[in-house]
Design goal:
Radius of gyration: 19 Å
Low-confidence stretches: none
Number of domains: 1
Helix content: over 70%
Number of helices: 5
Shape: elongated
Largest sheet: none
Mean pLDDT: 95
Distance between the termini: 34 Å
Strand content: under 5%
Number of strands: 0
Oligomer: single chain
Structural class: mainly alpha
Length: 160
């Protein structure tokens, strides 16, 4: 049986791709989870947003760090940080770090608090909750677009 040589670069590339899947893949399910929770379990919106916060802290952010570290290794080993597709992807990753830590996770926390408050009061989601949820949806669209552009740059490698 023929077993091709597997180098460190190949292992790091695999780790990088797995980290991308873990960091960003789960977020693409959020609109479906949100729609389901709103239709089937509107009283559980606090749980949904709380779960998003846990995923952000324990899965998404750590996986993004692995994406960065493995990506830097790959760029320095086989490419150059001066390659435009690598430089732009790094910029996108840093914007995603800022978006996650500065906007998405705090807004998810606020949505969880407001949804819990509204549930405890026995009412439907408040206008304040809906405003925060709308902000979250808009920022996620920005997140998705940035992730898609980064994936395109990493796969097409324009200019390489």
């Amino acid at each position: 049986m023929f077993i091709p040589a597997i180098g460190v670069y190949d292992v790091v590339l695999t780790v990088h791709i797995l980290a991308v899947v873990l960091a960003f893949g789960v977020t693409f399910a959020y609109p479906l989870l949100d729609a389901y929770a709103r239709r089937q379990h509107p009283g559980d919106l606090a749980v949904l947003h709380g779960f998003q916060v846990v995923l952000s802290r324990r899965l998404i952010s750590p996986a993004m760090i692995v994406v960065l570290l493995a990506g830097l290794y790959l760029a320095l080993d086989g490419w150059s940080l001066n390659d435009p597709w690598i430089g732009l992807t790094l910029v996108i990753l840093f914007v995603l770090f800022g978006l996650a830590g500065g906007v998405l996770t705090p807004t998810e926390q606020r949505c969880a608090q407001l949804a819990e408050r509204d549930r405890s009061a026995g009412g439907a989601p408040s206008a304040e909750y809906e405003a925060q949820a709308r902000k979250l949806r808009i920022m996620r669209v920005v997140w998705y677009l940035l992730v898609i552009v980064a994936i395109f740059l990493m796969t097409a490698k324009p200019g390489a």
